[in-house]
């Protein structure tokens, strides 16, 4: 057996040489001969919230014409709990129309994305986002990403406290490098004698991305078990007494590679609100020090925990934080979807959840959601909250302002009814912008749902809120392995079908059939829907039924997701 340590991954070299995330971004931005940036900078730019992409619809044609790919950039904002003001909304909308592709994309982590930003517009766009008091720093990269928190709840005060905790934690875990300011904002090196450092991350940041979510049971709208670190609010007698902490969830895997797998988080125990920051920091630094920096496919916290053993990991966190976990609570989740339309909180304020199909806010002939939301932002005096289900909440509407919002929703065609299946569906971006997509996702799922809606209606199941999620590759950006029906792209027009996930997000699904085309998906689901309609028990969810009826075996640990039926 070799005793030689495996070499660090190349991204570790790039981070080390980057001088706290500077790389050669300044030079790359100034280079006029290409629409791209230098290769190493494509890794560093992610920490600044920027991905280099090219329009994959145009790739072949451009290659034929001997042109470089149609390079552009995706910019992602970081906005804890998905919150923004109407003024910020108007600015984000303006940027979508002037510097991006006329759409705003709401992500599965409650953030905005702009697609199609060309190199010369990167700086003005990022400056404008910061002028509006939002940021893109740490929206991507090997750091803590956007922190998810409940966008809407009947418990107004509790939701507000949790949003404040999420923001406090996001700030605490934000990188301290001055590179972001230097490159995007004032353009000058900050003159200081102080040595630059990253007290939490260190000079090479984390081995891999890191994700946090807060939820309030019984609603698991932030898919807490799919996150590296989760905080489940424990509310007793109307008071937020603290959080049950979950660790080690994650979705990404590769097809046919069982050493990569999705994993549900384990519960470490209960902590008070005051203990939240030290515990989160200890989880982050333990992953920083023990995570695998040699193989990026094995670098997420979930693998660190499986390699170390849960008990040892938790003991390390307790030792670093000085916090001893108390026994966890018996938490139950009943659903994950956003409310439909208006919800009134316990203080009397109203909140409207606007369904945005797959998170793409755009103007289409029948539904003008981009313009409609602009019109609403011009009159709204509450806040907007993006949801981890890719929707948007028009929050804190006074009783007297409801009618005006409703009129605008009507005027812009935003109130049409939507099937339960569609309302609960998620699709990642996929083609044409995602460089990792193997198949369509966002552009394909709506049409497939038309067909599945017909099937469900034939079986009298049109009122069932079955959780269906699609991704264009196995990375899992729409969290497909915790869906009752997961469809994961394998090649153009070809998907793997996963079944048996828990409705509440507490059970992974399992590979059921491979390489299905459009008709193959419909043919595979048709007999299952028919059987479900015939033999389901009262209130039994589809994911539970397919297991009880023997169509697929339940999964108890991540690697089993790969195992057929
Ligand atoms: Fe993701 C990479 C889009 C949420 C797991 N994800 C990507 C990239 C950046 C592709 C790339 O690396 O070049 C995609 C950009 C597509 C585009 O054109 O916009 C991309 N991910 C998204 C978004 C926009 C999907 C969406 O439709 O909303 C989500 C942005 C969230 C945000 O605001 O930060 C998004 N990605 C997720 C989630 C869900 C979540 O965070 O709850 C996951 C699964 C959870 C997890 O991390 O385990 C996820 N994305 C990945 C992975 C696999 C990571 C892994 O551990 O293996 C990659 C690939 C990678 O990191 O190497 C990836
Ligand atoms: Fe791209 Fe794959 Fe993520 Fe979809 S799941 S956005 S195809 S990386």
Quick tags:
565 residues, alpha+beta, 5-stranded antiparallel beta sheet, 17 helices, 19 strands, 32% helix, globular, binds siroheme, binds iron/sulfur cluster
If you average the pLDDT, what whole number results?
96
Tell me the major beta sheet: 5 strands, antiparallel
Beta-strand level of the residues, as a percent range?
15-25%
Quote the distance from N terminus to C terminus: 37 Å
Total of helices: 17
- What gyration radius follows from the Cα positions, in whole Å? 23 Å
Helix/strand structural class:
alpha+beta
Low-confidence stretches: none
How does the overall form come out from the CA principal axes?
A: globular
Ions, cofactors and other ligands present here are: siroheme, iron/sulfur cluster
- Number of strand elements: 19
What is the spatial order of strands in the main beta sheet?
A: 1-2-5-4-12
């Amino acid at each position: 057996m070799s005793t030689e340590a495996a070499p660090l991954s190349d991204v570790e070299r790039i981070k080390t040489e980057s001088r706290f995330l500077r790389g050669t971004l300044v030079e790359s931005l100034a280079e006029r001969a290409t629409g791209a940036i230098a290769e190493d900078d494509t890794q560093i730019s992610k920490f600044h919230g920027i991905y280099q992409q090219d329009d994959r619809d145009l790739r072949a044609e451009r290659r034929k014409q001997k042109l470089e790919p149609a390079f552009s950039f995706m910019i992602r904002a970081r906005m804890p709990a998905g919150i923004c003001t109407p003024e910020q909304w108007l600015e984000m909308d303006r940027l979508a129309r002037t510097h991006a592709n006329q759409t705003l994309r709401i992500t599965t982590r409650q953030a905005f994305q702009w697609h199609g930003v060309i190199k010369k517009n990167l700086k003005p766009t990022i400056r404008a986002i910061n002028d509006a008091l939002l940021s893109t720093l740490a929206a991507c990269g090997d750091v803590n990403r956007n922190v998810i928190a409940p966008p809407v709840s009947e418990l107004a005060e509790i939701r507000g406290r949790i949003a404040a905790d999420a923001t406090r934690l996001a700030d605490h875990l934000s990188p301290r490098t001055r590179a972001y300011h230097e490159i995007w904002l004032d353009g000058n090196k900050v003159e200081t004698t102080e040595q630059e450092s990253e007290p939490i991350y260190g000079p090479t940041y984390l081995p891999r991305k890191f994700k946090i979510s807060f939820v309030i049971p019984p609603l698991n709208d932030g898919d807490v078990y799919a996150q590296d670190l989760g905080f489940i609010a424990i509310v007793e007698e109307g008071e937020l007494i603290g959080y049950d902490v979950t660790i080690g969830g994650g979705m990404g895997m590769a097809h046919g590679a069982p050493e990569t797998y999705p994993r549900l988080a384990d519960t470490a125990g209960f902590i008070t609100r005051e203990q939240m920051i030290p515990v989160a920091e200890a989880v982050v630094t333990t992953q920083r020090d023990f995570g695998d920096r040699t193989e990026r496919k094995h670098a997420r916290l979930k693998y660190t925990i499986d390699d170390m053993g849960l008990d040892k990991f938790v003991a390390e966190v307790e030792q670093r934080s000085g916090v001893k976990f108390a026994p966890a609570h018996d938490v139950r989740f009943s659903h994950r979807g956003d409310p439909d339309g208006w919800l009134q909180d316990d203080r009397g304020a109203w909140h409207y959840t606007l369904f945005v199909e797959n998170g793409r806010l755009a103007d289409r002939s029948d539904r003008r959601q981009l313009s409609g939301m602009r019109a609403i932002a011009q009159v709204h005096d509450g806040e907007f909250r993006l949801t981890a289900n890719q929707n948007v909440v028009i929050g804190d509407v006074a009783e007297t302002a409801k009618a005006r919002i409703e009129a605008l929703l009507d005027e812009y065609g935003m109130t049409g009814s939507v099937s339960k299946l569609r309302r609960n569906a998620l699709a990642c971006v996929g083609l044409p912008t995602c460089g990792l997509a193997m198949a369509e996702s966002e552009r394909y799922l709506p049409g497939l749902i038309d067909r599945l809606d017909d099937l469900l209606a034939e079986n009298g199941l049109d009122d069932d809120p079955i959780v269906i999620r699609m991704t264009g590759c196995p990375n899992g950006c729409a969290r497909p392995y915790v869906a009752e029906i997961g469809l994961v792209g394998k090649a153009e027009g070809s998907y793997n079908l996963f079944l048996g996930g828990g409705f509440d997000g507490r059970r992974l699904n399992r590979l059921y059939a491979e390489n299905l085309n459009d008709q193959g998906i419909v043919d595979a689901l048709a007999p299952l829907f028919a059987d479900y309609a015939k033999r389901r028990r009262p209130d039994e969810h589809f994911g539970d039924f397919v297991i009880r009826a023997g169509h697929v075996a339940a999964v108890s640990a991540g690697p089993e997701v790969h195992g057929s039926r």
